[in-house]
Specification:
It contains 9 helices and 15 strands. The protein is of the alpha/beta class. Helix 4 crosses helix 6.
């Protein structure tokens, strides 16, 4: 039987792998078992945020002595740029281990955190932000669910997608082949790529009918969305990397995941509901003991496209100096940090088709009773 482990490791810089290496040296992490590494880096989170690629390069270099090339390539390394406000740069290392004697087994066994990753083929520039990308992501989600032995879509609580974006060079390459792209604006392409990826998740999980996902709907019809997708676009890849997290009776361990959906950027009751779904009941800021049980918080953030939050005007979309995604990460990060009592939160900006407009999914992973 498989068991998942999650390690939250603070970083001093995008290339800081010292915490990861220390855990490998002490045996707390086995490199061969690493499935995915999610990280928050302190770049701008926009097209030219090179902290993401820098962090991936540092991680691959650090792990190379322990793994062959194929094993290294299988690890999904999803770096999300932007730690505005008080958000703390950190890594979340997801590890899978085989265990021989579970305490509970059989049909009545408790579910535990399950994880699997999948990669799509490389996208052509003209496919980014369009239905072809959504289809590729949907297929990869199906593959990852099967690998994780998650049989029901409702047992999936979070799907992280790292997706590509368009650059001037990629747009020119498509034009040389007489192909058009979804947009000539590289910054806008990030949103379209995130949106297409999120709708791919939504199709795979049965949240949105596939016939509604058209090129024209992507980035426009925000009534179409996933309650469990979290998508981050980056310059450092051309394929899509998918990390599926859910609960499965085929896994054991002391970790479980739950989720809810924030209706807007200050919807902290959604976080309380997510926490309650995995056994953490709270009304104010989590106690020291409760914080000890909470391993990870992952959420999406975006500036409400209507230009207001509960009727009060915001200026995030009108600021010509700072991208709205940066404002949104700081706002949501502060709101959620006030509940959990720390700032090592995986808050990703840009929530196109990821939750309702202005809101977004929030997922929590916590320790419960050991089942292995």
């Amino acid at each position: 039987m498989r068991s998942a482990r999650v390690h939250r490791i603070p970083t001093a810089s995008p290339d800081d792998v010292s915490g990861l290496m220390e855990k490998i040296e002490t045996g707390e992490i086995e490199p061969a078992g690493i499935e995915a590494i999610l990280g928050k880096t302190e770049g701008n989170g926009c097209v030219n945020d090179f902290t993401r690629g820098f962090a991936v390069q540092a991680l691959r270099t650090a792990l190379a002595p322990f793994l062959d090339q194929a094993a290294l390539d299988r690890i999904s390394m999803v770096m999300s740029g932007g730690t505005e406000g008080g958000l703390a740069p950190h890594l979340l290392v997801f590890e899978k281990r085989e265990v021989e004697t579970p305490i509970e087994a059989g049909a009545d066994a408790s579910s535990a955190l399950a994880i699997a990753v999948a990669h799509t083929r490389a996208m052509l520039p003209e496919e980014i932000g369009r239905r072809a990308q959504a289809d590729a992501v949907a297929e990869a989600v199906d593959v990852a669910m099967a690998e994780a032995a998650i049989d029901r879509p409702e047992d999936v609580h979070y799907v992280q997608v790292k997706c590509p974006l368009l650059t001037a060079a990629r747009i020119s390459e498509a034009a040389a082949r007489h192909e058009s792209v979804a947009t000539a604006d590289s910054l806008k392409s990030m949103g379209l790529s995130r949106g297409a990826s999120a709708l791919g998740v939504a199709m795979a999980l049965g949240e949105v009918s596939a016939d509604l996902v058209t090129d024209a709907a992507i980035g426009v019809d925000m009534a179409l969305h996933s309650a469990r997708a979290s998508c981050s676009a980056g310059i450092e890849l051309m394929h899509n990397e998918i990390v599926v997290l859910g609960n499965s009776g085929a896994w054991c361990g002391d970790l479980v995941i739950g989720h809810d959906v924030m209706a807007d950027a200050i919807d902290t009751p959604a976080l309380y509901r997510a926490l309650a779904s995995i056994g953490i009941e709270a009304s104010g800021q989590l106690s020291t003991e409760q914080r000890g049980h909470l391993i990870a918080l992952l959420a999406k953030a975006e500036a409400d496209p209507a230009g207001n939050i509960r009727g009060a005007r915001h200026i995030m979309l009108d600021d010509s100096d700072i991208a709205s995604t940066r404002h949104a990460r700081a706002l949501v990060g502060g709101a959620l940090a006030g509940v959990v009592g720390h700032t090592e939160l995986f808050i990703s900006g840009g929530a196109e088709h990821q939750g309702p407009p202005g809101g977004g999914p929030v997922a929590v992973i916590a320790r419960q009773k050991e089942t292995c």
